[in-house]
Amino acid sequence: MAFNESLSDRIREALAHLEDVEEKHMFGGVCYMVNGKMCVGVVKDEMMCRIDPGLSESLFEKTGCRPMDFTGKRMKGYVFVGPEGMRNQKEFNNWIKLCLDFNASAKASKKRQKK
Predict the structure, then answer these.
(1) Is residue 70 a part of any domain in this protein?
(2) At CA 43, angle to CA 19 and CA 64, rounded to 5?
(3) pLDDT (tens digit, 9 = 90+) per residue, 46-78?
(4) Which residues neighbour 105 within 8 Å (Cβ) at sequence distance 6 or greater?
(5) What is the number of other CB atoms lying within 10 angstroms of the CB of residue 75?
């Protein structure tokens, strides 16, 4: 399934000033890892944001923000933001900032051992 390449380009540009950024294709989209941790990505036409779980409920009130629920249940600390939630550069930058702010204190996932 395709994902919004122009949104991915915007995210790539927003993270360009950082040293440890890795782009990984997953979820049928792309995820940007910062300092070895999931930070932000694109699934279809939505931005996937890893944010402070304590902020989730208040952020759902923002236009275009909804819970991330791949398996039918909410993934704590992750939200999707639709195009209507980042209509201008200021809104987009606010989401990127939330992701980067949380990334500084987020724990990296345990590395899977290859068989």
Answers:
(1) yes
(2) 100
(3) 999 999 999 988 999 999 999 998 778 888 999
(4) none
(5) 16
pLDDT digits (tens, 9 = 90+) for 73-99: 888 999 999 999 999 999 999 999 999
Residues found in the chain: 115
**Strand blocks (E) in 17-85:** 21-26, 29-34, 37-43, 46-50, 65-67, 78-81
DSSP state of 26: E
Positive or negative, the Cα torsion across 93, 15, 59, 103?
negative
Measured in degrees and rounded to the nearest 5, phi and psi for residue 93 equal -60, -35
Residue 110 token pair: 């345990």
Residue 12 DSSP label = H
Specify the DSSP element, H or E, that contains 40.
strand 37-43
Distance CA 44, CA 80 (A): 10
pTM for the model: 0.90
In a domain, 62, yes or no: yes
**Residue 69 counted as domain residue:** yes
